[in-house]
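Dear colleague,

Following up on Tuesday's group meeting, I ran the structure prediction for the two-component complex that the binding team flagged. I've pasted the input sequences exactly as they went in, so you can double-check that nothing got truncated or mislabelled along the way. The structure tokens for the whole assembly follow below. Feel free to forward this to whoever is handling the docking comparison.

Inputs:
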Amino acid sequence: MNRAALLFAALLVILLPLSLLAGRVWLDPFTDPRASLILMELRLPRALLAIVIGAGLGAAGAAMQGYLRNPLADPGLFGIAPMAALGAVASLWLGVSASQWTLPVMALAGAALGMALLAIIAGRTGGIALFTLAGLMIASLAGALTALAITLAPSAFAMSEIVMWLNGALTDRSWRDVYLAAPLVLAGIALLGIKARSLDALTLGEVAARSMGARADLLLALLVGGVGLTVGASVAVAGIIGFVGLIVPHLVRPLTDRLPSSLILPSALAGACLVLAADSVVRILPLVTELRLGIALSLLGAPFFLWLLLKMRRGRL
Amino acid sequence: MILCADNISLSRGARLVLDQVSVRLEPGKITAICGANGAGKSSLLMALAGLLETKVGCVLLAENELSGLHPQIRAQRIGYLPQEAEIAWDVAVENLVRLGRMPYRDRGDAAVEAAIAALDLEGLRHRPASQLSGGEKARALLARVLAGEPQWILADEPLAALDLAHQQTLLSHLRKAANAGAGVVIVMHDLATAMNHADRVIVLSEDEFAGHVAADGAPEEALSAHNIKRVWGVDARWIGEPGARALMTY
């Protein structure tokens, strides 16, 4: 475990109890008789889900930036998140989300379809450019179909439900969501970690990486699998939560030797910290209705992105 | 361990780059690949490194087909330096050089230190890639190849970005590696360097269909004034003594 991973692990250990106590009503675990019920049934699953989702998105972002050799890459670029969202929107549109499993399962099916499309189009020897273009095309198609679903929503209620859901949140999540997302996200992070050294080799370009023994086809398969599982599971239980995968690797990179393999674990931990902290903040904010987590992170993420672009323009990145 | 291209044809997209080329390379020597632009020098080097699929024919390493070797084993045997000095992240020189140990999955401290010393990178060890000059970057990338202690060193124009002093240092280290038993194959444009430093020169030339071997042999024969006229269409004359030749064009 490197220095950055230790730092963010320590931060997470501090943040978790704070997040459990934080809320519109601060919890006093020693005097409040309902404390254990609120903690175990409401706040702990929500906090764990924030950690799981943040970890998945952070790790996926770090791996994507390493693979594309681009600091502006984001897991959303692969089109997997929009496809998962499309699956979920389809379940809301069709009104079949009555069963508590339908929506996440359809979202995962959407993510799987996105992964299959990527594999078919970019294939074994497609190369990184074709792969990125295929991802962008899938993302754009899924986005268009989602917009169509909103426009043609069967009722005003369905429309508002879809729009609300698209702006990801962790409100009212239960242990069921944790049980669904945690194994998939952990498996995804493990897949991303397996060939992390090959991502390091890619630092020197595709041809150099192959000459160093990296297998492009295997790396691509693991990456699509890893990003598909982490992002697909996140969208399935929380909707679209953007910018985590983009921001987190940037926060972590200066604390490491800057090689992609050193970034994956600390980015997972830092992503967990970021989503946990952001979700605690949206709970505390004195607003009439709780600010959606996806919106909060975008409000934070977009200015960060602009700052990043300015920094790049000045040649400091 | 002989590296051998057996009657290979290579294409890039629809274009046939090399047609029925055979070369047999022996370790312990420096072989230069020269030729006009577009004659297929880089493609031949990539095929010899097992990085370009051959359309016809095969590349053999110690009588084994290179395409059948596990990529990791191939990477342990053959170190390849591409022409483009690409470094995506702002990695420090020492970590860059250490990437050369990837085929072995170890830290290989001794090999990394030897490569850093060989290319005079001691003072730059902690410097991030973005703060390196073109020549420093080229040295660090070559040190990466050396750190893998390959039996074959295949480098695509490694001298292009280097100043005169570092060209000499690099050539002397490649000579040392060759004397120690490694095979060294370098694509180079500077015919005088090839003439003075290579043991053998392969000259590629392109006819209306594809690239092929126009000359292959000792530098004095392969790079004769006659061959230079035939391949590059330039009238030239060698002056000086063997080992210290200079090329005069007119």
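Chain A touches chain B through 21 residues (CB under 8 Å).

Cheers,
M.
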